[in-house]
What we know:
Blueprint: H1 2-31, E1 38-42, E2 47-48, E3 52-59, E4 65-74, E5 77-85, E6 99-106, E7 116-126, E8 137-146, E9 153-155, E10 161-163, E11 167-174, E12 178-185, E13 188-191, E14 193-194, E15 203-209, E16 220-226, E17 231-234, E18 239-241, E19 247-251, H2 254-260, H3 275-296, E20 319-322, E21 327-332, E22 335-341, E23 345-348, E24 354-356, E25 361-368, E26 374-381, E27 384-391, E28 393-394, E29 401-402, E30 407-410, E31 422-428, E32 431-433, H4 436-439, H5 441-452
Parallel strand pairs: 2-8, 10-18, 19-21
Antiparallel strand pairs: 1-3, 3-6, 4-5, 4-7, 7-8, 9-11, 11-15, 12-13, 12-16, 14-15, 16-17, 20-23, 21-22, 23-31, 24-30, 25-26, 25-29, 26-27, 27-31, 28-30, 31-32
The protein binds zinc ion.
Amino acid sequence: MRKKKKRTGLILIIVTVSLIVCALSWFLSQVFEGEKPQIMLSPLPAFISKPQTFTLHLTDKKRGLRKFTVDVTQGNKKLTISKKSFLFKNIMNRNGCHEFNLKFSLDPEQLHLTQGEANLTISVWDYSMRRGGDGNLSITTHKFIVDTVPPVLRVISRMHYISVGGTGLVVYQVSSDTVKSGVYAGGLFFPGFKACKESKDGFTVCYFTIPYNMKLPVDIHLWAKDRAGNTSTGRFYYHIHRRHVHKSRLNISDRFLNRVLPWFSFYKFPPQLSNIEKFIEINRKLRKENTAFFYSLRTKTSPDQLWDGLAWLRLKNAATMARFGDRRTYYYKGHKIGSAVHLGVDLASLANAEVQAANNGRVLFAGPVGIYGMTVVLDHGQGLASSYSHLSKITVKTGQSVSKGEMIGYTGQTGLAGGDHLHFGVMVNGIFVNPAEWWDPHWVHDNIARKLSLIKK
Ligand SMILES: [Zn+2]
């Protein structure tokens, strides 16, 4: 009986001691916990050009946050942007701070940072008793480059005579850290392209236009952006020549409608439209969609100049049937039913005449384009393109390279065409311009080639 009591007592002591040991080791593991505070910093910009706001998110699930510092270092210089200590609250810091959010701003100018590399360092300690009582320490360093100097823009070409609806070219130089540059014409952006791949001098070419439908006066200026996001604008001398607008009247006959409407069988017309209503629908809606399609092709242009020589080729032995920019008004049985601006030049030769590439390039598109019928679009690089519409047959494929004078198809009357002809278009960054300028060797020499010759290779 006594022996049993003694044994019970021993067990009790062992249990108590082990409980105390367990509690103590648990307590110590809590007090000396080794889990480091977590740091989340965003954003992490590679460059800083202007005051930058950062969001800092600090957490420490176990003992809680003790203190943090936010420092910027550059060379021997160290600047503290923000720091804070947190109070120890309640047993085991249960009511202390376990999560902290901070928004802070870093203004390179206010901090007198110099151009070049700098470090943003976040240091956070927790309330663990580790490291001689200092707590667990987390450090995050973000390297960045201070760049507050805008890119340099230097205009090289001199005279810029531009016709409304015509092509303009400006040659300029940009500093080496420029990532994007170009011309703004009335809010419309035209990208510049490196004049030659090998050149490290930053020579840039930019083709632009004052679109045929843009209201004058129009502001034209150069713009550049560097890797850090700094921007510059620059002026260049230009003179805008207003073009005379030709007006033409086109009568739509039932015979014409009967001939062209079958081409539009792909189009989902609202039900119960008469033929003339179908024409009105196509002229209003499909024409807009087609213009947007041509505009979308600009992003596929080659960064290199693909064309060469002076004058571009014009359909052989062809008469001009309609000019660029003609304001057309459509009539049906004497009533005005719509209008449109003609965005190319209509050239008529014999039926099914051979169509040649106006210059060297690459086939950007070959296929049907709504009212334009069977169409080939050639890219000539740096935003320049030519288009060939109403073809009866296409003899090239998308992606194929073509040389000046190479056959690409045959004329026809597919799409909204009154008869067999070639509708020839030239585009600058997806916007149709007057092709006639590009057929004129004197114009190409004075306005394009002479400027390109200023580029030092
Ligand atoms: Zn046309």
